[in-house]
Amino acid sequence: MPSAIHASSMAPQPEINAPLHLGRLNGLPRLVPRKRAHPPQNPFPVPETPPLPPPPDLESLPFEEPSRRILSPHDHELFLSSPTYALILSFVFSLSESAADKKISSVSTISREPQILRLLSILDAIGDLILRCPPQDQGGSRFGNPAFRAFIDTVSSSGQAWHQQLGLRSTACIQEVASYLNHSFGDRARIDYGSGHELNFIIWLLCLNRLSLLPSTSFPALALVVFPRYIKLLRKLQSTYYLEPAGSHGVWGLDDYHFLPFLFGASQLLHHPYIRPLSIHNEVILEEEGDEYLYLDMIRFTMVSKTVKGLKWTQPMLDDISGAKNWEKVEQGMRRMLVKEVLGKLPIMQHFLFGSMVPAAEGMGKECNMGLVPKSEEYESNEVAVHKEGAKHVHRGDEWGDCCGIKIPSTVAASQEEKRKGERDALRRVPFD
């Protein structure tokens, strides 16, 4: 009798080598490779260099004493859309581009031109004036030294002869051009220095360019010879008179006093074969290349002058920027900062001076219409009238509101006081101990 056959044994069996559809068996969705997310794009485009207009016709140029014209937010908006704004951008960016991929020593031939030598001679003469105006004994105070006011007065009284050496003859012309030089070394009342004063020095050079005394062929020497000499002079002033950083809100986050050396310096390093943004943490590179590149020189000076060691403590923004992919990114960021954090900031530009060669836009306010005395006369009563959001208010020379930044001591002064007391090599405390 045949054996019984179960129905289950008659069911078709799957082939051993048949492919297994795991997704179907387990009910899982099909895996799709994840697309790599693109890094976020900066919404603010990189500012381009406007064309530099030709010098004006001097025969029809009515020279005048420069005055403040940005007296309200509306005035500032008019400035940002004016030809003068484009002129300033064009000149600064042209100076920066002229320094691209150049060492400081590579422009030594151009620096021998007579007009460049005259500019250097003027800066040397200004440095000599420090000996005639020695600092007062302040008993270890790290705030600005009052002797700085005598220094500024001496600079102002010497301007006529210096500008005659440059070839200027008209008294009205000299008065206009010299105003920018006089305001290039700090505020006489507050004894401080910031990016606005640095901008005044650039406008002084721009005026000489408008007078056809500094053609475009001199731009490399201006950026890499004259401007570094100016920075060196300012360091001497800062360490002598303990100039306080202008403003207390960290407009830059880059440096207590300067900005443009980082723009020009980043342009110098655009295509360097081995120096990268991260190289600013390499002390050997700073020591070997600091004399040739402005950016590295600024980092080197910061590390020497601060009482606390480490960029992440003293200049955290520079520390962050060192992580950039290349110097092109750094240079583009510096261009953006010039537009947004210098020219675009009312607290800085409310002190900017306009004249015939750097004219104000139509419709901008005037000091006389706002009840303000000229900037050159505002210190006589030890009172300074300023504006915030279009409202005039007055500060005394020793009292400053939050709109203008509270007075803060100089970090250079801290280092100098340590040297004077023989404590410079002592162990440093870590911040926030």
Shape call:
globular
Helical residue percent?
40-55%
Number of helical segments? 16
Q: How many strands, what sense, and barrel or not for the largest sheet?
A: 2 strands, antiparallel
Q: Order of strands side by side in the largest beta sheet?
A: 1-4
Present the secondary structure layout.
Layout: H1 22-26, E1 67-68, H2 73-80, H3 83-98, H4 114-132, H5 147-165, H6 171-182, E2 192-193, H7 195-210, H8 219-241, E3 244-245, H9 260-268, H10 283-289, H11 294-305, H12 311-314, H13 316-321, H14 327-342, H15 346-349, E4 353-354, E5 383-388, E6 391-396, H16 411-421
Description:
With 433 residues, the chain is mainly alpha-helical. The protein contains 16 helices and 6 strands. The model is unreliable at 248-252, 380-384, 387-402 and 424-433 (pLDDT under 50).
What would the keywords be for this entry?
433 residues; mainly alpha; two-stranded antiparallel ribbon; globular
Summarize the structure.
The chain is mainly α.
